[in-house]
Design a protein that fits this description.
about 100 residues, mainly alpha, about 0% strand, rod-shaped
Length: about 100
């Protein structure tokens, strides 16, 4: 029983320390939360916007390997057609010049 009385007195002791009657709000001096409270939601909107923009950028960015892969694939196909005899040397040179120019 003595333990219970001691623990209840220990738990209730912070309420006794409140001299002015507004426990927990003494650090604000009665002015409420202040103008700084508005910037919390604005900051979170900015953070969420940056995350969404980053995801969109990651999805839409062009991949450099795929762009160079297309031209090298076209050159490989051109080489195969020339090797099989489907096109002559002049046609091969003209098409290769077109493919490497872009």
């Amino acid at each position: 029983m003595k333990r219970f009385a001691f623990l209840s007195a220990l738990m209730a002791s912070p309420a006794f320390a409140d001299q002015q009657g507004y426990y927990g709000y003494g650090h604000m001096d009665g002015y409420g939360y202040g103008i700084g409270m508005m910037f919390g939601p604005v900051l979170w909107l900015i953070v969420i916007g940056l995350i969404i923009a980053g995801v969109i950028w990651m999805v839409r960015r062009p991949e450099p390997a795929s762009a160079s892969g297309k031209s090298s694939g076209a050159l490989a196909e051109l080489d195969l057609r020339f090797a099989r005899g489907e096109i002559d040397a002049d046609d091969y040179a003209a098409r290769k010049k077109l493919l490497t120019a872009s």
